Amino acid sequence: MGKGGSLSEGLVRKIVLSYTYVAVWIFLSFTVIVYNKYILDRKLYNWPFPVSLTLLHMSFCSALAFLLVNVFKVVEPVAMSRDLYLSSVVPIGALYALSLWLSNSAYIYLSVSFIQMLKALMPVAVYSIGVLLKRETFKSQTMLNMVSISLGVGVAAYGEAKFDAWGVALQLGAVAFEATRLVLIQILLTSKGIQLNPITSLYYVAPCCLVFLLVPWVFVEYPVLVKSSSFRPDLVVFGTNSLCAFALNLAVFLLVGKTSALTMNVAGVVKDWLLIAFSWSVIKDTVTPVNLFGYGLAFLGVAYYNHSKLQALKAKEAQKKAAAQAGEGEAGRLLGQREGDGSVGEKRDSQA
């Protein structure tokens, strides 16, 4: 097979790997969401302690990441000063703790399907916070797109059969904290050139997140857990749940690192539809026609936003390529000019 065939095989391999990363992330995200709902829901496993569950996840992730970095030497730790850790990792860890706490708490009050509909507001939150922190440029067309997504989610909320205001507030708070965390990752990590792989990311962020989670746990859930000391957690249930959470954290970093954040956004839309279908068909959550109509509007808005981001990325890549070609052309012209000057000088020397 010729050169063209080799390139074709490489492209096919790259596409297959990308779809594999997406499939693994969707499967793990799907599993963790349903598993958490099963544990926290009072009608199912009946262990309504979201902070404790998140604390278990972060403890497991911290311990496993520590072993992989310091004991088994799978990867090398990143050189990070104390000031850099305090200014970069600590804020991200705090926001991550708040996001996980509130999002897990929402599963006690809301259905899986409705939570996924509310998560469609993530692009709105990321763009709005990006504009406020001057990481995004305000554009009327983009803001109109954000309004359409918000309108769709509003319609879906209006049609929710089991609407719970407190649950909605918790999920919206989780979206806001997660969006702020994503923007801070761009500002604090990307701008400072810190390169973290999936394991080192957990190695630095998970312990910080764990410390912040201890505060609400001590004051909110620990006293209740002491009173219900008769409860003995199932090691199989909580062990496999924590393992799934660890694998999901690795899959998130792997998907973004090997593809892009845009790919994750698109895959997230597919995952949301799958969860809504699962919630309706298996868990038997009530999904009304108004729910679906509203989420359909939000879905179209998110799809258009992702399409716009993709076009912007393509245009940026085209500009880089054109600039590189122009630079090569200019370098060739200067080189030719120097060679011409050199030949003229040689001719003059021979004439002399």
TrEMBL record:
GO terms for cellular component: membrane. Residues 324-352 are annotated as: Disordered. It comes from the Eukaryota. InterPro entries: Sugar_P_trans_dom, TPT_transporter. Residues 336-352 have a biased composition (Basic and acidic residues). The keyword Transmembrane helix applies. The keyword Acyltransferase does not apply. This is Probable sugar phosphate/phosphate translocator At2g25520. The gene is LOC115743508.
